[in-house]
Amino acid sequence: MAILLKNIKQLLQVREATVDKVSGKDMKHLPKIDNAFLLMENGVISDFGPMSQLPESKNFEEIDCTGRFVLPSWCDSHTHIVYAGNREQEFVDRINGLSYEEIANKGGGIVNSAEKLQQTSIEDLYQQSAKRLEQVMALGTGAVEIKSGYGLTTEAELKMLKVIKQLKDKYNIPIKATFLGAHAVPKEFKGNKKGYLKLIAEEMLPKIAELQLADYIDIFCEKGYFDLDDTNYILSAGKSHGLTPKVHVNQFNSIGGVKASVDQGALSVDHLEVMTAEDIDALKNATTMPVALPSCSLFLSIPYTPARKLIDAGLPLALATDFNPGSTPSGNMNLVVSLASIKMNMTPEEAINAATINGAYAMGLSNEVGSITKGKKANIILTNPIPSYGYLPYSFGENCIASVFVNGKIL
Ligand SMILES: N=CN[C@@H](CCC(=O)O)C(=O)O
Ligand SMILES: [Zn+2]
């Protein structure tokens, strides 16, 4: 049945279908309609406009939205929500003075998660991951990217990607899968990084491509993990199997990964906590979306992506959660939007643009989600009565969401 939302205080992020992302100064503009209606039929947005143009009532289920805001669901373009167990002991170790790097060097970190995941059955892994996906959907996430990278063996990486596929089949929000075999060098390959990269390129990638389990290819380009040569090798190998790069770069150090990723035609470069002028220059006139992950900065107490420098240089910016057991055990996009305003000096308009239309772009979904546009999926957030949309980032920690709609149906 068609659902009509009427008397909406403001309908946010109203866009023409031609807009796939917003950059620079345009990010300060959030197109909206006051006192609006929105009609959802057959899973998509079929009509919207001011109340003065409300269509003749047909067989609609009507919801009165007086005092409430409606916006597209959050588009979370960077997560690792398929993982096994948690790493709260490492969190306590950090409280007691160890750094993320020191924990990784003593066998914690990504390889710790990989050990746990290798010992977890696919059924159990699915259950743990599905629970997290349901949690984030209830928090307003209406499209999500999920990475592998906690397997680090052919069998375990395939297990992760198969779980992502099961999630795609079961849940009706758009889900994109990214193969991140090059997340860390596994213990069995200590001192033989090249051997592990060869395994990724010559064994894992062909199998993943044959089974059509991934949309994107990723690598953790960082000191102590994988260097520029490794990055070029893996991204090229991924591309030869039809996977577009989306890359972890500049989390702790700038080693040229941004330019290398742009040169490889990356759809996005993610993290960017440490950015040089050269890194920013490399992104100018590129189609690559920079992606900031402020809840990772919060959790690890590392710098925030210098959003102002990027946006003021005319660049676009997307926001995502990075939901994972080590650096960001949270998939709450509402918190991410708040942190963007509080810690990165992004205006509410910039933060909402970054978490919707630009997030959609960063996972190749801007023709399906990310804005209020006729024909796009009716994946929608309806807020509680709130004074203004600026209240969303302002009221950090408060849940302002009244209802979430997925394909035009209430969750
Ligand atoms: N930095 C690399 N990967 C994840 C964290 C991995 C972990 O600590 O488990 C990230 O994006 O933050
Ligand atoms: Zn990540």
TrEMBL record:
InterPro entries assigned to the protein according to its UniProt record, in alphabetical order: Amidohydro-rel, HutI, Metal-dep_hydrolase_composite, Metal_Hydrolase
Pfam families assigned to the protein according to its UniProt record, in alphabetical order: Amidohydro_1
One cellular component term from this protein's GO annotations in UniProt: cytoplasm
UniProtKB keywords: Cytoplasm, Histidine metabolism, Hydrolase, Iron, Metal-binding, Zinc
Cofactor(s) of this protein: Zn(2+); Fe(3+)
Pathway annotation from the record: Amino-acid degradation; L-histidine degradation into L-glutamate; N-formimidoyl-L-glutamate from L-histidine: step 3/3
Protein's recorded name: Imidazolonepropionase
Gene Ontology biological process terms from the UniProt entry: L-histidine catabolic process to glutamate and formamide; L-histidine catabolic process to glutamate and formate
HAMAP family listed in its UniProt record: HutI
UniProt organism field: Croceibacter atlanticus (strain ATCC BAA-628 / JCM 21780 / CIP 108009 / IAM 15332 / KCTC 12090 / HTCC2559)
Upper taxonomic lineage: Bacteria, Pseudomonadati, Bacteroidota, Flavobacteriia, Flavobacteriales
Localization, UniProt: Cytoplasm
Annotated residues for binding of N-formimidoyl-L-glutamate: 150, 324, 326
Reactions catalysed: 4-imidazolone-5-propanoate + H2O = N-formimidoyl-L-glutamate
Role according to the record: Catalyzes the hydrolytic cleavage of the carbon-nitrogen bond in imidazolone-5-propanoate to yield N-formimidoyl-L-glutamate. It is the third step in the universal histidine degradation pathway.
Residues reported in the UniProt entry to bind Zn(2+): 78, 80, 248, 322
EC number of this enzyme: 3.5.2.7
Residues the entry annotates as binding Fe(3+): 78, 80, 248, 322
An MF annotation (GO) of this entry: imidazolonepropionase activity
